[in-house]
């Protein structure tokens, strides 16, 4: 919305960048095969989650597992709703993920918003609650992303926004414990001084060592991931409003921050105890290599799509192919994506950047104005007060039953909902 329209009081039109077709294509062609055969993701306790909002799912970050822990949790949560648009959780994420090119998976434009995410501001968070959304939130924030293997499973200080909003609007909070995600990057150690330097110079919140050095040399390794078997466990709801009352907070418009921090710390301790207990049970064999080999054999002949070095090609080609005619032949399919070789060349980052600047859409931005490029990239902070979401439609879906009715056993591959690739 322009400043002139704001001054005139003209309301902004409803705006929702969530693109179900884009999300379905990513899941059907890329995420589901990786989830099923590489990470072997499993969601337990989903039957506890209310089918209607507002509700907050509070999940722990798996240090340096970015972006895989959030992406695959989001995928499994949506799977429970049969991939209906109304069943989509709205993930609130930090601004760095939109403002910096290499914080968007494989540089895909506006990736987080098109996948259903909303910029994390206090006002946005509250508007989502008032709208009745089901929200996925990571209360550790950026420090949780960059805590490194040396601080694995150690929950960082929780933000207080979800505590206040849960109490103010009487919203249930369900913890989600991510197990084994720490082993996605077991060779990523972080150091506060270096992380602060990376944040100031490159707007990247962390640089894991030693694997971060390899990512500087070979771009594809920025998203390198070891085959940890991801387990997501939904816990019993936490009565945050009751904890706030017990802390003596009565003014929810102007609460005493020190008391809010005490409540957030209490929630963190409770989640830490539950997480540690689950890790002791389910985290002893994080990779389960025998099971991995069985899954890889099922996908034999198509490993390029599910092993990490093939992910840049899989994601980017899926996006580009939706916007251009089919390739004339196999050679043409390779040659028209010549720039993607930059992911595999030593210090290939400049080639990737130059190709995006000089190639035409959908491979680059040649011919677009600076503002058009900014809008396409999503390189801005989206404020719902300026560009509000439309009213939420009543959920027109039935959540999938928990595997085995009341059992929390994992679903078999035959039980999984398959998203047909978009044409």
Brief description of this entry?
With 423 residues, the protein is an alpha/beta fold.
Structural overview:
With 423 residues, the chain is α/β, with parallel strands linked by helices. The protein has a domain at 14-303: Glycerol-3-phosphate (1)-acyltransferase. It is built from 17 helices and nine strands. The protein has a seven-stranded mixed sheet with strand order 1-9-6-2-5-3-4, with helices on both faces. Helix 6 (122-131) packs parallel to helix 8 (161-169). The protein is globular and about 70 Å long. Residues 1-7, 402-415 and 417-423 have low confidence and may be disordered.
CATH architecture of one domain: 3-Layer(aba) Sandwich
Helix content: 25-40%
| Straight-line N-to-C gap | 34 Å
Order of helix and strand elements from N to C terminus: HHEEHEHHEHEHHEEHEHEHHHHHHH
Query: What is the 3D form?
Result: globular
Can you identify the CATH class of one domain?
A: Alpha Beta
What profile does the largest beta sheet have? Answer: 7 strands, mixed
Number of helices: 17
- Give the assembly state of these chains: single chain
Strand order of the largest sheet: 1-9-6-2-5-3-4
Q: Find the count of extended strands (DSSP E, 2+ residues).
A: 9
Structural class, by secondary structure, is: alpha/beta
Provide the gyration radius in Å. Answer: 21 Å
CATH topology of one domain, anyone? Answer: Glycerol-3-phosphate (1)-acyltransferase
Mean pLDDT: 89
Strand content: 5-15%
* Uncertain spans: 1-7, 402-415, 417-423
């Amino acid at each position: 919305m322009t400043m002139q329209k704001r001054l005139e009081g003209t309301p902004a039109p409803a705006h929702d960048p969530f693109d179900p077709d884009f999300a379905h294509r990513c899941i059907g062609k890329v995420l589901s095969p990786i989830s099923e055969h590489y990470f072997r993701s499993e969601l337990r306790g989903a039957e506890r989650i209310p089918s209607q909002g507002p509700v907050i799912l509070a999940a722990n970050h798996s240090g340096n597992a970015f972006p895989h822990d959030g992406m695959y949790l989001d995928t499994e949560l949506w799977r429970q709703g049969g991939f209906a648009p109304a069943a989509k959780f709205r993930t609130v994420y930090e601004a760095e993920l939109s403002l910096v090119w290499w914080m968007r998976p494989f540089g895909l434009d506006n990736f987080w918003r098109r996948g259903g995410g909303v910029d994390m501001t206090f006002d946005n968070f509250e508007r989502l609650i008032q709208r009745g959304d089901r929200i996925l939130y990571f209360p550790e924030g950026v420090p949780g992303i960059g805590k490194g293997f040396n601080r694995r499973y150690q929950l960082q200080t929780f933000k207080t926004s979800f505590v206040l909003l849960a109490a103010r609007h009487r919203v249930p909070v369900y913890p989600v414990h991510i197990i084994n995600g720490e082993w996605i990057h077991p060779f990523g150690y972080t150091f506060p001084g270096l992380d602060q330097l990376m944040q100031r110079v490159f707007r990247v919140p962390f640089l894991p060592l030693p694997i971060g050095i390899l990512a500087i040399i070979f771009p594809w390794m920025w998203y390198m991931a070891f085959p940890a078997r991801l387990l997501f466990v939904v816990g019993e709801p936490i009565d945050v409003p009751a904890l706030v009352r017990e802390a003596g907070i009565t003014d929810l418009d102007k609460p005493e921050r020190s008391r809010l921090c005490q409540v957030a710390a209490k929630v963190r301790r409770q989640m830490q105890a539950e997480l540690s207990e689950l890790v002791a049970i389910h985290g002893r064999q994080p990779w389960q290599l025998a099971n991995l080999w069985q899954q890889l054999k099922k996908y034999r002949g198509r490993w390029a799509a599910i092993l990490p070095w093939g992910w840049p090609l899989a994601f980017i080609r899926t996006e580009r192919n939706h916007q251009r005619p089919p390739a004339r032949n196999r050679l043409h399919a390779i040659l028209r994506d010549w720039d993607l070789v930059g992911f595999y060349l030593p210090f290939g980052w400049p080639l990737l950047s130059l190709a995006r600047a000089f190639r035409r859409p959908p491979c680059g931005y040649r011919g677009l104005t600076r503002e058009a490029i900014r809008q396409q990239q999503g390189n801005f902070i989206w404020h719902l007060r300026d560009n509000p979401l439309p009213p939420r439609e009543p959920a027109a879906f039935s959540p999938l039953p928990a595997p085995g009715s009341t059992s929390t056993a994992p679903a078999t591959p035959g039980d999984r909902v398959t998203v047909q690739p978009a044409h």
